[in-house]
Amino acid sequence: MPDDQLSLTFAALADPTRRAILARLAEGEATVNQLAEPFDMSLQAVSKHLKVLERAGLISRGRDAQWRPCRLETAPLDTASEWIDRYRERWSGRFDRLEREIRRIQEGSEHD
Fold it and tell me: Domain boundaries in the chain?
C-alpha cells in the first residue's frame, strides 16, 4: 500500500465503516466502545478500522486516565479536498467548453 499522505487518506476513506466513524467523530470525541455501538462487528474489527484511520492521520487518540478518546483530525481531509478542487476546476472548464461546442454544433444543424 502506498504511504504518501493523499493515498493513505483516500484508502482510509474508501471504506463505509471508516467514513461512518469519521462522521461520528465530527460530532465530538468518542471512545472505541462508543464508536463500535452502531456496528455489528467486534471491538477488534473496529480497532482495526481505527488503526487505518490513525495511520492516515485522520484520527488521533488521547489519554485521560483510563479513557482513551478518539478525535477527528481534519488536516488530511483538507489536503484531499484541495486536491479534488484543483481537478474539479479543470473538469468544470472542460465540461463548459464541451457544452459550448455541443450548442454550436446543434445550432449549426438547426440551420441545415
Answer: 5-110
